[in-house]
Batch of 2 targets.
Target 1
Amino acid sequence: MAIIMAILSGFALTVVAPWLCRLARGATGWIIALQPVGLAFYFASQLHPIAAGGVIALSYPWVPGLGIALSFYVDGLSLLFALLISGIGALVVIYAGGYLGEHPQAGRFYALILMFMASMLGLVLAGNVITMFVFWELTSLSSFLLIGFDHQREAARAAALQALLVTGAGGLALLAGLLLLGQAGGSLELSTLLNEGRAIQSHPLYLSILLLILVGAFTKSAQVPFHFWLPGAMEAPTPVSAYLHSATMVKAGVYLLARLSPVLGGSEAWHYLVTGAGTATMLLGAAVALWQTDLKRILAYSTVSTLGALVLLLGMDTVLSVKAAMLFLLVHALYKGALFLIAGAVDHETGTREVTRLGRLARAMPVTAVAAGLAALSMAGLPPMLGFINKELLYEAKLQAPRASVLVTSAGVLANMFLVAVAGIVGFAPFFGRRADPPRMPHEAPLAMLVGPAVLAGLGLVCGLFPDAASIVVSAAAGAVRAEVTAVELKLWHGINPVLGLSLLTVAAGVGLYAARGFLRRAGSIGDAIGRWGPRRWYSLLLASLNGLARVQTRLLQSGYLRRYLMVIVLTTVALVGSTLLLRGGLTEPVPSLLDARFYEWTIAALILLATLMAVLSPSRLAAAAALSVIGYGVALLYMLFSAPDLAMTQFAVETLTVILFVLVVYRLPRFASLSSRRARLRDAAIALLAGGLMTALVLTAMTLPRDLHLATYFAENSLLLAKGRNVVNAILVDFRALDTLGEITVLAVAGIGIYALLRLRLEEPADSGSSQPEEEV
Amino acid sequence: MFSIILSTAVRYLFPLMLLFSVFLLLRGHNDAGGGFVGGLVAAAAFALYAIAYGVPAARRTLGVDSRVLISLGLLVAVGSGLWPVFSGQPFLTGVWAKPTLPVLGKVGTPLLFDVGVYLAVVGVMMTIILTLAEE
């Protein structure tokens, strides 16, 4: 129950937030933060039972017919994520209070970020793959809205759309993968699926399932070649970048891989695909980060690199690598969250994020500088930070990798060298470096903007000195991923061993790269030139061709001429129905008994035919309208003769109203004129005859088919019994098939509103636009 | 275009047609009729009124904005479907009151649903007709 409350309270607060913001103004951040703080304490209180191997599972029926339940499944992995989401969420909300200040749209911001928080919690706590998917898409949606928060800027809109399209396309693949997974595993419940690993891996659909789910995970977690949306997403306000695009949402793909690794992991395909994508992403992100000059872009690319490293570790799929991945998740969220928030504070205070213009900020912003220094130390993996312990564990895991350990280890060392230099560029140079010409002389950031960085960076230090707290969370998470009890012992000092040697090498090389950063930036222009041919270009090409296709087919089908629309609709129907009738041998000889109709039936038929000719040939609109209604009344008479009084009555009423409508419209039209050419008329006649002929053939064929009286008898027998009405037609309309009727009146209402809007639009146009037609003509 | 014949006729026809439309609506469950055709007849009555006395007069007689009628109709129909949901039955299950009323006969959510259809049809038709006639 508490789990549901945890998620629902976020959505409830989303609704209230804008209103609260109007009341509390500057203090909103502090007030709203109470909710995530409470959640963080709740999740922390569950730590001990879950670390001991316990699981919270609860389930409510949702669509029981399809096996979809609103169920939740909380184990160590979920708990690690839930703690990160709620804890960092609280700090980010407080920070946003200072960052936005009296921003007029602050209420919308709080609402969106709370919506994201609740969705993300739902995603990691969900126990049914469909429930999880719904929350997954909700996070994509809130990410879209948050990236485009500053929607008056074109760049923000484009970046938001790009993120939505990339993650949305991945989401579709994921949905297909999850449904296939449910088919192969026999259930949509995680608790069942987690025990079906062997059956699923030997299933013929295994490879398709794996590929589809990997596309979903890789798009969300910005793996090569889908990584390009993440640096673009830096258009979002900085608290959003820190929270969604570094600490939580982009790790959803990592969460998914970790969650499903007992089910899908361990195979050759898993190993090569996941490790390969991870390694490529790790190296690419770290290298590109080196020559960027915008603080946020540097951090974004280094986040891409980290996501790659996490995916790589999960791909290796050993006990040690999973432990390292879980610790890395925690460490990265702490230092990267802090660095992003610091970047926002620097931007806020100095007016620039260009690292080449920043330096010597430590004197003006001492607290921020200390937090930045600590976070950078953790990022560089230096003692006594938690980052150091993490890097040792990473190297150990890679050295002991069962496959290609030399390759993996050297890739890891290389990426880490780059990241050491990046840590210096973002955490050290702006504060302690020389050279500074910021647009504004800085002050220390306000208290709300100091809490987040200080707490996150401080935690990195405290957990480094006393690693026991971190090891409980990490071992609970790793135990959940490995589906076995996994003890994680974290120590600062491991003695002198190969891992320490690699660490020393990494730091030394990293410092060297840092010193050469000016040269790297100049060399980076070559990298940028190559990058121009990268996946971002394919994305824009794809988008442009899609738009082109849409334009062409719109021009083709949506010409704006009513006659063209009618032609397309009628011809399509004739082609589809006619070809089916012909190809499937549906046409049959008409039943001869159809011809012995009574004389008054023949009379009505003749009347209808005559009226049709009149409607087509008459040179007067009013006469044509009258002829049309003769046709309608004739058909209604036929209904009467064949004992369908309800239908006949309705037809009479409709015909009457149609005449009224016609008169109202005809009244407004200009004098009748024959504008179409002879050829066009012949073509129209041919189309009309085709459609009429098809309908006749269809009706005649339908008459020869054996009639299934199953439903008819059911309705006739039960309309009085069940629906308490003697009129079967009405009982069907308002009781048996009431849902259809509800749909129909909804369509009717929409059509009515549409017509109203069209007419009003005409009316409110300036009078001269349609003045070529005289208004008073009758 | 004022016609004394039409306006005199409409003075008597209009209430009769409205009465007839309600009659159709109420008898629909057991005999030919129903909310849809009832709504059409009522719309025809109002259209006739608008032709005889002009659109503003028709609007005044209608009393409410026809667009409000559309949403009211949908609301009533959905509400009649939601009624059974509160007692744990599926959406749109027919729920009938025990006592039968003197004129209405058996009363239940299907009748309410039909009233919703009636209102929606009147609303849509009047929105179209009045807007067209006004132009």
Target 2
Amino acid sequence: MTVNLVVVSHSDKIADGAAELAAQMAPDVLILPAGGTDDGRIGTSLERVMAALEQAGDANGDGIVVLTDLGSAVMTAESAVEFMADPSSVLLADAPLVEGLVAAAVAAQAGAAAEGVKEAAEAVYRPPAAPQHAHEHRPPEATGDFELVNQAGMHARPAAKIAGGLSGLDAEVTLNGVDGASMTELMMLGAAKGTVLHVEASGPDAAKAVDYLRGLITAGFGEP
Amino acid sequence: MGLDVNWALRWLTLSAQAMAEHREELIELDRPIGDSDHGENMDRGFKAVMVKLAEVPPETAGAALKLTAMTLMSKVGGAAGPLYGTAFLRAATALGETADIDAATLASAFQAARDGIVARGKAESGDKTMVDAWTPAVDAAAAAAGDSDVHKVLAAAAEAAEAGAVSTDPMLARKGRASYLGERSIGHRDPGAVSSALILRAAAGAAE
């Protein structure tokens, strides 16, 4: 079971488009768009949001996380949650809609619980992880250096695979100093083909994490 | 004699009429500092309320306000939907099954409505929002409730809300779409405060 996602936007097209984008990286996650008004205008509708929440609730997942755009989308989502039979089953993520949704979907796909999915969405706001020297006193338990061999290098899909795979492991992992669990930070590396990624991992699954990344990166993420 | 379901129905009808009459005015107010949809949204929302009230005539004032709340949240579209929706819902809860609404209950229902708007929109007094109409109205209603005359409570609330709406002119918007304009929001009256004053004036008119 995975966490189900609901996307509340003023625009039907934005909600649909964001859901479509996120679904590319999280094919097994239920992502329900609830955009626009009942009659197809710009705005938000309690009925639409409640219908999506009920559908998400009926789908028998591990809870629901809601992503919203601005103003009334947040207020309508909050109102809808108040009307739910079990408001505690729904978490509202305070995150940028598109980036947050993609991060949430990747986390849900990897099996994270509702809190973790919300956290993943909200993490895209935060500045990149503290520079590596902050951890110098604690040497990593496993390391590795792997060259990016796929044509496109580090982009959204590889970043999603790395972050998604790592979120299922009990390890703190950095790649060239950035948090391996953060899709956004990985993408911000701007690493092209030929870049060597230096991996450092700590925690019970440190070795497993390095093995996972070795397999993924040296195989070019299954891309040409 | 307090207020009953017929007062609530007249209030909502007069509100719908006011939104239709002031539709263009609200659109014009919203144009420079918002997305110029407030008049249209409120008119559409209250027209939908009229349809709902005719479909299933409510038996108490509380039920009428609850139906209004649900309809506005679904049909308005803009931020006014969940804000007024929450206001009417909290007022409905405050009234409960009361068939004969006295001055104190009325004043507490207005306060519940205002508290709902604040909880939902997280705006404070002086942010250039509908709160700047509601808070003076709630204070005036509470002060007038001492005389145990619902008409005085309604009149005081309406008058204070109207003055509150005017008081938003020099304010710098700190909430909602208008806040993106910063200094440029100064000199414009907040459309949400104006529609709030219209609704509270309708409440007074319904008891005459």
